[in-house]
Structures are given as C-alpha cells and as structure tokens.
Specification:
Length: 311
C-alpha cells in the first residue's frame, strides 16, 4: 500500500539512507501517530540488497519525484541531494547525522540531527527515549547501519554512543560479529552488475561550497585494486560527469575499508592544485594517496569547504 506520507533519504541511496527510511516506517505509528511508506530516491546498492534479502524484507519502491506526498527526510539535509519536488510546506520531519544543508520549512517540524556515526543510531535514541521496544529485525537493521556507515567503527565519524548502541542491540540479535561484518563488507565490495557509471555514481553527492559547486563520489571496498584497474575508464566517466553537471570541481575516492586509506582520483589540473593545497598530496598516475582518510563527511568535505568558501 502507498501512503501519502513517505520516509525517504538522499539520491544515490546508501545502506544507512535506505534502512533508516525502513526503520522509520516500522515505528512511525508509535513515533508520529500515523503510518508511512518507506521509499528510495534511486537504485539500491548490493550491500543494501544483501541485508534486505537476508532479513526477507521487501525492497522499497523507487520514487522519481515528490508530488503531493508529505515527507519525513532521513540521512540528509542537503537540497542538492534530495529528489525534486520537496517544498517548504510538505516537509514533516528530518532525522539525520550530517551538517545542516540549508533546508527550509514553512511550518514547525520534528527535527533530530545528532553527530553520530549513522542515522540508524539517531533513530535508536529516539526509540529509547519513547520506551519503544526494538524487535530483532529492527535491531539488525540498526546494527547494519552502524557497521556500514562507520566502516566497522574505523571511521572518524564513530562515536561512543554508536559503540554502546551496537553492544545493546547485539544482546538482542546475538550476531557472530566477525562473520557478519565480513558478509556486509563483501556485499559492499561486490562489483557484480556494476558499471563504471555505477561505481562513480552509487555514492555521489553534490555540495555548494560558497559559490563553488563540488561533486564528491566515494566507493568503499575491501579490494581497491578491482576498482583501480578500471582507472582510465573511471577518469573519463568522471570528466563527462563534471561537464554534464557543470561542477567546478569533481573528486572520487576509492576507500580501502581494510587498510583505512583512500585513493583520490584527480580528473584535471584544477582538482590537482586544490587537492595538493588541501590534502598535501602529490598526483601520481591520476591518483593522490590519502593515508588514514576514509570519511567524506569528516575528512574530505570540511577541508574543501574551508578552502573554497573563502574564495
């Protein structure tokens, strides 16, 4: 059944975005007093597909444009990351763990934005505060959000609350953590059915940094070499994307989730000069190696924002 009220995350949905929308739909009646429909703003990735199939959950339908639906927005507040149609008068709630991206509302809304490792953790705290019991499937969904978005607690976005929530929920789920993490990361790294365009677009976001438009894509994997072997094709696709979307700068990072490093793809001289000044890296064969960098939110966007917003 399709409801007139939806929960939806950002374009190019990642696991936290999709599962957070599902979680809100599962508890909407108890939190808000009405039922909602969980939808997604784009094709679901292999990692998310894996956990939905494992838990035998129905995949949310893809919504191309918001028409008359009232919206509960999860995992973003950036207007450029939201599908078309969201207006000031149809936003009901925001639940997120990022910075404020400039959304406006014409009326009071429910808003919970907290600096945690994932939106799933924010949702869990909302449930706790309302004494709402979490079932085994929902606990598994939240645990998956935490593992995926914090890269198994290796990202600098990880907080003590995320670790505590994980421990509390695993008392319910009783996972073999090592095996579960391996399953999630194997699914995350799976390139089956993934084109070069998918690689650069699956986890891609646009940002306004002052007057400058910047696109930043990320691919998280246990095997960077399976992506980097396609480097020339990827750089060409990035150049085309930069031109089509009229970006001033475009970056793409292949994140090694085992060694906790990144290869930053450099598509032009402008990107090379900016990256060198911001990240102190030297371009080599189209890449800049970033040691210890795994988070777009904490380690890529802030220094770029600081640099470009002053220009």
């Amino acid at each position: 059944m399709n409801y007139k009220i939806i929960a939806i995350g950002h374009k190019n949905p990642d696991t936290d975005s999709v599962l957070s929308a599902i979680l809100i739909s599962r508890f909407a009646k108890k939190i808000f007093g009405f039922e909602i429909d969980a939808v997604v703003a784009g094709k679901i990735n292999n990692e998310t597909n894996y956990i939905l199939e494992k838990l035998k959950l129905k995949k949310p339908r893809i919504l191309k444009i918001i028409k008359k639906e009232a919206v509960i927005l999860v995992d973003t507040t950036e207007p450029k990351q939201i599908i078309d149609g969201l207006m000031e008068n149809n936003l009901l709630a925001i639940i997120d763990h990022h910075n404020f991206g400039g959304l406006k509302s014409s009326k009071p809304i429910f808003a919970r934005v907290e600096a945690l490792g994932c939106t799933g953790s924010v949702i869990y705290k909302i449930l706790q505060e309302r004494n709402i019991k979490v079932d085994k499937i929902s606990a598994t969904l939240i645990i998956t959000c935490i593992i995926s978005d914090t890269l198994n607690f290796n990202s600098p976005t990880t907080t003590a609350d995320d670790k505590k929530i994980f421990r509390e929920l695993n008392k319910i789920v009783k996972l073999d953590v090592k095996n579960f993490v391996n399953e999630i990361f194997t699914a995350k790294s799976n390139l089956k059915g993934i084109s070069v365009d998918d690689i650069i677009s699956k986890d891609y976001k646009q940002f306004d940094m002052g007057r400058i438009k910047v696109g930043i894509g990320v691919w998280e994997t246990t095997s960077p070499e399976t992506v980097n072997v396609q480097k020339d094709k990827i750089i060409q696709a990035l150049l085309e994307k930069k031109s089509e979307e009229k970006m001033d700068y475009l970056f793409f990072a292949v994140v090694d989730i085992i060694k906790n490093n990144s290869d930053l793809y450099i598509v032009g001289q402008e990107e090379a000069e900016l990256a060198k000044s911001v990240f102190s890296g030297n371009k080599k064969e189209g890449l800049i190696f970033l040691r210890g960098v795994v988070s777009r939110k904490k380690q890529l966007v802030p220094p770029l924002m600081d640099k470009l917003s002053r220009e």
